[in-house]
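Hey all, quick one. A colleague (J.T.) asked me to put the pyridoxal-5'-phosphate job into the tracker so the inputs and the structure tokens live in one place instead of scattered across chat threads. No bug as far as I know, just bookkeeping. Sequence used:
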Amino acid sequence: MITDTDVTVDSPLIFEHSRPGRRGVLPPRAPEVDLAALLGAENLRSEPPKLPEVDELTLVRHYTNLSRRQIGIDVAFYPLGSCTMKYNPKVHEAAVQLFADLHPYQDPSTAQGALQVMYELQRDLGEITGMDAVTLQPAAGAHGELTGIMIIRAYHASRGEGEQRRVVLVPDSAHGSNPATASMAGYQVKEIPSGPDGEVNLEALRAELGPHVAAIMLTNPNTLGLFEERILEIARLTHQAGALLYYDGANLNAIMGMARPGDMGFDVVHLNLHKTFTVPHGGGGPGSGPVGVKARLAPFLPVPVVVKQGETYALDYDRPQSIGQVRSFFGNFGALLRAYAYIKMLGAEGIKKSAALAVLNANYLKELLKAEGFRVPYDRICMHEFVAQPPEGIKTLDVAKGLLEMGYHPPTVYFPLIVKEALMVEPTETESKETLEQFARAMGEVIRKDKEWLEHAPYSTPVRRLDEVQANRKPKLRWGG
Ligand SMILES: *Cc1c(COP(=O)(O)O)cnc(C)c1O
């Protein structure tokens, strides 16, 4: 018998289960305040919001069923290159709970523990990257980039070179957010081609450098998963031209504890705590993109900076050259806590070991995929990731769709742009040898399927092949009723 309280397991549409007056939770009674006086009568709702009215169990099933329509790192291997989908240790959530009652408007004297965490995290990230000062404010990688480039702009302006330095150089293998950031900050973007070895072409760089260049944005290892071996020469040339060197450190997985951007000559770096430092991501946030700088750029950091005065932690707003505040309050504090817990649990040795294992896993998987018939265009020792291609005649898109049928999230596809039919694979250090071997076998199985199967996969996922143009241009983001 079907009753009102029955919920079909397949239906995620919670609105269909709404019944007037049904409740899962009783919110606390609103305090007796005159909201119209407080907020202005014109800002008050005239009708209640059309929210579904359901019992608690229906709500739990709604979200649980939605979660089962996803492939996430807690469900299956997720080798999404450039995104570092590593395991997010659950113990970090306990650290977050400890601070659950804190409010950002609290007086700093009553939030010393939180400020200590931020102070130590600034210091630890500075140590890991070889930078002298760090801000924890930016809310994501691209936001960190924008903050970093604004700091660079303020630096050149302070030396009277703001007008003259109008160009930011970006290699052709760069993550799309790099040129986007530079142009958002008002710079002209100039692309530097890669050489046949997959590294920055030094001749091309030399030709572009000059008194009109503000910075070059690089990532090392680059997006082909290769270490730029001529980085010291690149740094020397850049500084000789009066420009600064920006490090996209979204993925520090291959080098943390091993090598430091600061020692390579970089002046500014951003990190993605939601990649390298195990803060969960994939659903659009909340992330965290701290920025580290060399001492000469420290005066331009956003305010406030967490400082230690004697035994007391404080927020320093008195920084006249600061670019200002780039986010409300102090950044995504929950993300900062998880990264702090991760760093403290691993310690210096653990961080180093995790980088070594990330590189070992990537190289092992690269060899396994070659044995299965995949091509590797830049076939040398890779860092934390590598770029492969399916055999001639098979489309990368079909491989990705076929993998979904096998229960795996596909690697990053069609990126970097300089490799045709690219599959960018990043296994991370948290996967076992057996998982890598199973995945390689699944990849091999996919490319041996017949054409008909490949072109129509996946078969058993909640949605199959979407009209990608429509999905992009006219996404349906709400339930239509
Ligand atoms: C992910 C990534 C970014 C952007 O980070 P978001 O947090 O998504 O804004 C920038 N650069 C590289 C190399 C990345 O992998």
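Adding what we noticed when we looked at it: Residues 82-83, 140-142, 175, 177, 219, 248, 250-251, 272, 287, 289 surround pyridoxal-5'-phosphate (CB under 6 Å). The mean pLDDT is 92.
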